[in-house]
Structures
1.
Amino acid sequence: MTAATVHPTAEIERGVEIGTGAAIWSHVHVRGPARIGDDCIVGEKSYIAYGVTVGDRVKINAFVYVCTGVAIEDGVMVGAATVFTNDRYPRATTPDLDGLLASGPGEATQHTVVREGASIGARCVIGGDLEIGRFAMVGMGSTVTRSVPPFHLVVGSPAVSIACVCRCGEPFLRFAGAAAPDACAAECPRCARRYRVEAGTVSELGGAA
């Protein structure tokens, strides 16, 4: 097993668990407790809050902000400058402005899960209380305000589905501004993996034909 590599400028707080083979680059800040799995990459100047869990073989690019309440499963890619959020109606303090600053998780803290194999493009904003499904893809600069189904490609602000994507990342079914078809079979043009789509739900039909 290969030990984790942590750049000397990174700030790793007590209670952080870093898996074997992980690489933590310059000026990263990880608050404890948190977990970063095996063979991960965390790009420079990224921030990972306490309570966050990151699976194995996850790539988090530079300048990413991962707040409390986020769980990232295996094989996920998070593009540069992506921001996760966890509070729908945030305030700095109490309504009369004489209370303590609001800091740390509470009843209003929302949770987000990024499922295995998903990809999030650069400069996205990810809302709270949602799920990004397995092998889904979020186009660069999108604002995600609701859950993304597995194998769907979403773009825009707010993000909407425009296609279904293969495990390899290639779109295999485009909606052209309409809803996903009620029922059809499709094959990836790049790797020939086969899928079934019913009412927008994507099912894998096994390997390449």
Note: The chain has a mean pLDDT of 93.
2.
Amino acid sequence: MTIALMLDLVGVARETIVDDYASSAGYFARPAEALIEHDDWRHDELVVESPPEYMASALTHLDREHGGARALLARQGLTDTELDRLVERLTEEAP
């Protein structure tokens, strides 16, 4: 979610953010090295899912409830100058 927030802040297309999130499952889903035990349940493999609709829904919520990444971060105390500097550091001009 943090990566999606930063991508939204710098103006990456929503479709690209959703696609990036959906592709992340392929990097994390793999059998666990050993059984994972917690209370009364067990899993013999670790599977991480990242359905695109989850991110699409989160981005819609970000817009509706918070006005987008920039507005959310500003409400958390970042100034316009700090946000502009963050965007500058996270992006570079195309050659």
Note: Helices lie at 2-9, 14-23, 25-28, 52-66, 69-75, 80-90.
